[in-house]
Amino acid sequence: MSTLATDRSNWMTRHFVDREEPVRLFEEAEYAIKNEAHQVLTFHGLGGQGKTQLRYRLEEILSKKAPPHLSWGAVDLNGQVGVRPAHLLLQMRNAVKKNTKNEKISFPLFDLAFGYFWKDAHPGQPSPMVEENWWDLVSVATGTAAQFLPIPYLAPVLEKVGRAVAKYAYDKLREHEADAKTHLYSRETVLPSHEIERRLPAIFVRDLQLWQKDRPGSRFLFMFDQYDSILEEGGASNLLRPNNADSAVRELVSMCSGALFVFFSREQLNWERVDPSWAKRLDGRQHQLCGLSEKHAEAFLELAGVANSATRSTMIEAASVRPRSNGESECFPLMLDLGVTLLENATSSDQIDFHIADVGFSAKRHELLSRVLRSYGAPLQATLVRLAVCRRFDRAVFAFIVNAFRTGVPLDAWSTVASLSFVRPMGEGNHLTFHDLVRQGLEATMARDELLETHRLLFQHFEEAATVKRLPDVSYMHVASAAEAFHHCNSYSPREALLWWEVKGSSFRNNGLDRFLEEIDLACVSIAVASFGNGSIEHAAAQERWAGNLDTQGRYSEAEALHRRALAVREAIEGDAARGTAASLDGLAYNVGVQGRYAEAEALQRRALAIREALGPSDRDIAMTLRNLGSTLDSCGRHGEAEGYHRRASAIWERGDVLAPLDMAVCMDSLAWNLDAQGKHTEAADLYQRALAICEKEVGPRSPRVADSLDGLGWSLDVQGLHAQAQAKFLRGFRIRRLAWGMKHHLTATSLANLAGSTAAQGQYARAERFYRRALDVLEKVRPASHWHTAAVRSDLAACIDERGRFSEAAPLHHEAITCLLAAFGEAHARTCWARYKFARHRDFRGDRDGATLIGQRALETLLALSGLADWRVHELQQWMASRSRPS
C-alpha cells in the first residue's frame, strides 16, 4: 500500500505550485487578445523546471474556463528536430480542431492545400491524420480537375460526397474559389508542393481570417511546448543557419490577428536577430521559470500527499540543487517528483530515508534515481537502466533490450514503460526518450563494464537496422539507425567507430541525406584528433569527408577551409607527389570550381593528374581526374580542348571493368555535355540516356544523382528545340532536388532556372519569370552576388522581362549580369557572349537597331572564334542577325 495520504487521481496537481505568476501572466494575455493584433508569451528555463507541467496546467484552465469565442490548441514538439513547416502547421491545425469544444473552426483552404502538397511531395504514401478534414480534401485532392467547372477541384469533391449534396458542396466551395485560385493555382494548374509549403502560413492565417469574418469576436490561442526541440542547439544558436519551421511560425505569427502564441522553451525566442522589429514586440513578453523555493516545495509535496513534515524536509534537501541569489535553496520539480515516485512505490512496512549526505546535484540525482529504480523491482529496473543508454527507443528497441539482456520483463510491459512520468514522446513517430536529467542519471548508475556491454549490443542492433541491400532502398530511417549505431560504437571504441564509418558512410551518400550525416562526419573529426592527433593523416581524411558533405549541401565556403587544411596536412606528411595529396587536390579543385574560380581549379587538377600519371596504374583515379579537368575546361568555354580529356577518360571507362557504375555515369554525363556544347547532339543524347539508366538502376529514380542526368538530357533536348520534352525532364529533376536538398540549395535553383528556360522557349513568359525569380532569390542567398551562375540567371530573367515589354525594369539586370560575367570570365567567353546577345535583343526591343546590331555582331564574332559553327548558340545568334537584316 502506498504511504501517500491523499488521493492523487489527477497526477498533474502534484507538480503545480509556485506558478501563480506565470498563470496570471497567461490569463492576462489571454484576456487581452485584440482583434487587430497578436501577442507572444514565452516561458523559458532549464530542463526539469516544470515548463511542460505549466503547459498542462494552462490546458487544464482552458478546458474548464475557455470562453466560447476562443479556439485553442497545444503542440508538443519534443524530438521534432528538422520538422517540415507543413507538418508543424498540420499539428497546429489538428490541435485546435481537437481541443475546441464549441463550434469547431474549419480549415477549408489549408486542408485543400495540404492535400495537394502531400500528393506532390509524397506520391503514393498515406497521408498523416487530419482531424475532421473539411470534405476529406486530403484524399479528394488526388482527383482530376473538371475543366467544365469554374472551380478546378470541385469535380472530385462531388465524386466523393455524392450528387445528393452536390448543391451544398458547390455553394461552400464557391465561397473559397477566389482564395484557392490565388494561393494554390497558376493558370488553372496546381502549384508544386514546395511552393504550396512556402505559402502554407499565409493559407493557415487566411482560414483564421475567414472564420473571424463570419464570427466577429473570435479569438485564437496556440501553445508550443519544447519549442527548442526544432531549433539547433536547443535554440541557443537557432539563427546560425536558416530554420524553415521556425521561419514559418514567425511568418504566421506576424500575419495573424486576434491571437495569442505561447512558447515553452529552454531558451528565449531571439527573432529580433532576424528582424529587429521583433525586439519591441518581445520586450517584456519572455519570462524565465526557475526552481521552487523551499516554501513552494513544501506545497508541492503536500499536494502530493506527503503528510510527514520531517519527510518533506528531507525530500526538499535531496532535491535542492543550487543556491538562489538570496542564499535560499532552489529545488527542481523533477527531483521532487522522483522523490514522490519513490514514496508512491513504497509499502507501509518500508523505512525510507530520503536523506542524501552529498550536496552535489549529480550525486543527489544518482542516489535518488537508484532508490526509485529499486522501488520498481529488479526486472523493470534492469530494463530501464539499459534503455537509458539509448538516445531514443521504440517498442522494437525495448523488445531487443528485454531479450538481449534477459531482464525478465514481459514484452507486454511496454505500455507500462511508456506511461512512466519521466518518459516522453520524441517527435511525431513512435519513439520515446527519458527526460534528459533522468536518462543521464540512470546511465550514471551503471558499472562501466555493464555500460560498455550495452553499447556494444545496441551498436549491433542499430547496425543491422541501418543495413541496406541496394542503394536505391536507402531512406531516412536507415540514416537515423546509422547515426544511433555510430553513437553506440563511439561510446565504447571511438577508433572502431571512425573505421566503421569510413567503410559504412559511402552507402548513405549521394541520396540527398547528407545533412543528416553531418552529425557523424563532425564527430569523426573530433575522434581523429583525440585518437591520432591534430594534423594526422586520419584527421585530414575526416576533414575531407566532412568537407565533401558540406560541398554536397552547397556550403562551399565552410568546406573550402576544411579542404585546404586537409591538403596542408597531406603535403606535410605524405609529400607533394602522393596519392592522398592528389585526392585532396581533386577535392579542393571541385570546391573552388563550383564557386566559379576555374583558373585555380584547373591548376589544382593538372597537378593532381601529373601526380597520378607519375605514380603508375590507378586507372579509376586517372579517369576521374581527366573527367574533372575536362569539365573545368568546359566551364571556361574551351570545349575542343576539354573533349580530348573526356575522350581519354572514355577510353578507360569503356573497358567496363575499371570504374564503378556511378563513376562511369558521371563520366558519360560530362562527355555528353561537352558534345552537346559543340552541337553533336545525337551522340550526346545516347550518352545521357545510358547514364540515366545506370543511375536509376544503382541509386533509384529519386536520387539527386538521377537529377544530374535529367538536367543534361533536358538541356540537350532544349537546344534541339524539343522544349516540351526538355521541360518534363527539368521538372522531374527539380522535384528530386527539392525533396533532397530543399529550396535553399544552388542545385535546386539550377533546376528552376533550367525549367524557366524551357518554359520561356514555349512562349510562357509570365510563368518563366516566376521560376527565374525564385531561382535568383535562392542563388543570391547561397552564393556571392557576383557569382557567374547568379549573373547568368539574372541575364535570363532580364530577357524574360524584355519579352513582357518591361524594358526599363530589365535594363539594370542586363548591366549587372554583364558586369559580373566580365569580372568572372572576361570578354572572350561563351557566357559573356550569350549575355551580350540578350542585351542586344533588349536594345533592339527599345528601338536602338544600330546599337543592337553592333553588340550582336561582336558577340557572334567572339563566339565563332571560341566555339566554331557547331555551337548551338552561334546558330541562334546567326539566325537572329539574319532576321534583322531582312526588310520588315
Short note summarizing the structure:
By secondary structure, the protein is mainly alpha-helical. It has 40 helices and eleven strands. The strands form four sheets. The protein has a five-stranded parallel beta sheet, sandwiched between helices. Strands 3-4 form a two-stranded antiparallel ribbon.
Give an overview in words.
Helices cover 64% and strands 5% of the residues. Strands 2-5-6-1-7 form a five-stranded parallel beta sheet, sandwiched between helices. Helix 31 runs antiparallel to helix 32 and helix 33 (723-741) runs antiparallel to helix 34. The longest helix is centred in the N-terminal third of the chain and has 22 residues, at 193-214. It is globular.
Report the portion of residues in β strands. 5-15%
Principal-axes geometry comes out as globular
Q: What is the residue-mean pLDDT, rounded to a whole number?
A: 79
User: Largest sheet, if any?
Assistant: 5 strands, parallel
Gap between N and C termini, in Å?
103 Å
Radius of gyration: 32 Å
* Structural class category: mainly alpha
**What percentage of residues falls in helices of 4 or more residues?**
55-70%
Q: Helix count, per DSSP? A: 40
Number of strands: 11
**Which residues sit in consecutive blocks of at least 5 with pLDDT less than 50?**
1-15, 134-170, 232-241, 355-359
Question: What's the helix and strand layout?
Answer:
Layout: H1 20-31, E1 38-44, H2 51-65, E2 70-76, H3 85-99, H4 108-121, H5 137-140, H6 154-161, H7 166-175, H8 177-184, E3 185-186, E4 189-190, H9 193-214, E5 219-225, H10 244-255, E6 259-265, H11 278-282, E7 286-288, H12 294-303, H13 309-319, E8 320-323, E9 329-331, H14 333-345, H15 361-376, H16 378-387, H17 395-405, H18 414-418, E10 423-425, E11 432-434, H19 436-444, H20 448-466, H21 476-492, H22 494-504, H23 514-532, H24 537-553, H25 556-573, H26 579-594, H27 598-615, H28 619-635, H29 639-653, H30 661-677, H31 681-699, H32 704-719, H33 723-741, H34 746-761, H35 765-782, H36 788-803, H37 807-825, H38 830-845, H39 849-867, H40 872-885
Parallel strand pairs: 1-6, 1-7, 2-5, 5-6
Antiparallel strand pairs: 3-4, 8-9, 10-11
